[in-house]
Amino acid sequence: MDQYRFIEERVTKPLGMSSTGFYVREADRDRLAEPQIDPATGKRPPLFDATQKPKLFSGGGGGVSTASDYLLFSEMLLHGGGLGTTRLLSQSTINLMTSNALKPGIAYSAATLQRFGDIGPTPAMGQGFGLGFAVRTETGQNPLPGSTGSFYWTGAYGTTFFIDPKQQLIIIMMIQVPRVAGPFYRHEIRYLAYQALSVPD
After folding, report:
1. pLDDT tens for residues 3-57?
2. Can you list the domains of the chain with their CATH numbers?
3. What pTM, to 2 d.p., does this model score?
4. What strands lie across the sheet with 127-129, from one edge to the other?
5. Is 72 within 8 Å of 16 (Cβ atoms)?
6. Which of 127, 111, 107 is nearest to 119 (CA)?
């Protein structure tokens, strides 16, 4: 079974993610979002052609989806690997995935720290890295709001998902912007989401 069929049969179809895959089929091409124009160049950033079925499927990138589909996947992660009557992962697997897997004392170059900034899985950002995403390991280090145990990741052109189990919060941002613009939108959506949370008296 190839990667595409495996993901379709074991992940997207069971979760009801009908608009998720590695390319956009003909019937859905008018729904494909275009990236913003980069003010510095006056051009759209180069992206892979999502209308063409790739020869090789990536395990870590190159997917296309919708916010509603991504929400289903995020809800599965938030609820311990299950959604409704469908279970993809056990709670113990989710616990392992959302735990910091990095050894203490890892040295990071200045270039790495600058490249990743607030999403860096570093002690300076109060984060580590689990099996697939950054994990908040402590409070007070990262400039962005979020509870210890939150986990998330972001795509090259701004698409971001963020899950805070303590707050039962999911944030999904589906954008296509120049790479330098991604952090601005990522910060804004996080601040706005947490400011909107009701705080009991």
Report:
1. 778 889 999 999 999 999 888 888 888 888 877 787 888 888 777 788 888 887 7
2. 3-195 (3.40.710.10)
3. 0.88
4. 127-129, 134-136, 151-154, 160-164, 169-173
5. yes
6. 127
Distance (Å, whole) CA 155 – CA 52: 20
Burial group, residue 152, by CB count within 10 angstroms (0-12, 13-18, 19+): buried
Q: What angle do CA 36, 175, 98 make, to 5 degrees?
A: 150
What is the C-alpha separation between 141 and 137, in angstroms, rounded?
9
Q: Which string of DSSP letters, residue by residue, matches 155-180? A: -TTS-EEEEETTTTEEEEE-----GG
| Beta carbons within 8 Å of 129's beta carbon, 6+ residues apart | 100, 101, 102, 121, 135
Contacts within 8 Å (CB) and 24+ apart, 62-65: 62/22, 63/20, 63/21, 63/22, 64/20, 64/21, 64/22, 64/23, 64/24, 64/32, 65/17, 65/19, 65/20, 65/21, 65/174
